[in-house]
Design brief:
It is built from twelve helices and twelve strands. The protein is of the alpha/beta class and about 375 residues long. The structure holds pyridoxal-5'-phosphate (PLP). Pyridoxal-5'-phosphate binds next to helix 3 and helix 4.
Length: about 375
């Protein structure tokens, strides 16, 4: 048996929605992007959501929208995907790496406070695996220090934390619809905020500086009631080609309908893993999963026998990964590295296991069986 690590759950409904866009022959930035933006804003419970081609673009535009002075610093976890910290470098700012909380592997609030200095202008918490950072501690402290807060929500989809949706605790939230995520558009992302002013330039920034809906412009090409300037736009801002398109949004509209069901399936798989490995002496869940409260994009374990377990699972056809090599250990970020002992020490133990909503019971039982077998042979 071969068990995949991640897999998007796609079907005929997504294809039918794509077909509608084919029939209209409008597959670029269009009305479906707007519709998904509205539905996503509703889903998360936020005033504004803007569709982009990735969370990487969302993180970049989030940092850019504050127009920070170059050379200032942003606090970011070492235990995250490159995109979180790349957004800082894109804008000529300096990443200050914060260590992980031992239990949750999210930003450690004490280390955050230790790493702060007066040149810091923002903090970028990442809800690692989907497990929330202690936002009730982070937000009042960030306010006191006048720091902007950009939440990287790539591993979650609007779970409530202490009654408030993740992605709405900070000034701006960034979501990912890349193919491994809780829902997908192939590649895609959303930037959200309750402060619409903050995102006022994002529509222009995602579309090479043009703050006009081009599909609406196209409707006026032949409109005799319009003046001869239907084509006019003014460039006031440096933009990028970061927009979501209607093909991606077609997939997203269907995926969003399926999301509660897909999330429930993931949660039930995680529950099975947790019960299934509870007798293991050397293999423990990577974070304190609480599937009754939160949704999780990844399931992982910690073990002192990382390499041996990876090789054993490989020999049984079970795919694994490691999320992540701490950024402080990556050559690109070494010039900015500071002490992140927990992240670097725990990374040595971390293995990501198969988790997606199409995993069968048989596959989950098979993985659990082999985790137990490996553990019992030690
Ligand atoms: C924590 C985190 N942030 C940001 C991203 C970037 O997401 P995207 O692939 O949509 O750009 C990822 C993707 O894996 C991620 O895991």
């Amino acid at each position: 048996m071969n068990v995949r690590l991640f897999k998007p759950s796609l079907g005929i409904d997504e294809l039918k929605e794509i077909e509608k866009s084919f029939k209209k022959s409008w597959i670029g930035l269009g009305p479906k992007v707007s519709l998904l933006e509205e539905k996503w804003a509703d889903f998360v419970g936020v005033k504004t959501a803007i569709g982009l081609n990735s969370a990487t673009a969302a993180l970049h535009l989030a940092v850019k929208s504050f127009n920070f002075e170059r050379g200032k610093k942003i606090l970011v976890p070492s235990m995250t995907f490159s995109a979180t910290a790349c957004a800082i470098l894109y804008e000529g700012l300096i990443p200050v790496f914060v260590d992980s909380n031992f239990d949750t592997l999210g930003m450690d609030i004490n280390d955050l406070k230790n790493k702060y200095d007066k040149d810091c202008v923002a903090v970028m918490p990442v809800h690692f695996c989907g497990h929330p950072v202690e936002m009730e501690k982070l937000i009042p402290w960030a306010k006191e220090k006048n720091l902007k807060v950009i939440e990287d929500c790539a591993h979650t989809t609007g779970s409530l934390y202490k009654g408030k949706a993740l992605g709405t605790w900070g000034d701006i939230g960034c979501f990912s619809f890349e193919e491994k995520k809780l829902m997908t558009t192939g590649d895609g992302g959303m930037i959200v905020s309750n402060n619409s002013k903050l995102l006022k330039d994002v529509k222009a920034m995602r579309w090479v500086g043009i703050d006009k809906d081009n599909w609406k412009t196209a409707q006026s090409y032949l409109d005799v009631n319009k003046d001869a300037y239907h084509w006019f736009y003014e460039l006031n801002i440096l933009g990028y080609k970061y927009n979501m398109n209607d093909l991606a949004a077609s997939i997203g509209l269907v995926q969003l309908k399926k999301l509660p069901e897909m999330n429930a399936k993931r949660s039930s798989i995680i529950d099975k893993y947790i019960v299934g490995i509870k007798e293991c002496k050397t293999i423990k869940p990577i974070v304190p999963y609480d599937t009754g409260k939160y949704v999780y994009q990844m399931f992982g374990v910690r073990t002192k026998n990382k390499e041996d377990l990876i090789l054993y699972l490989k020999s049984k056809g079970i795919a694994t990964g490691c999320h992540y090599t701490p950024l402080t250990m990556q050559p690109l970020f070494k010039p900015y590295a500071s002490k992140c002992n927990i992240a670097e020490q725990e990374y040595e133990k971390m293995i990501t296991l198969p988790l997606h909503s199409d995993l069968t019971n048989e596959e989950v039982e098979y993985v659990i069986h082999h985790l137990n077998k490996f553990d019992s042979q030690l």
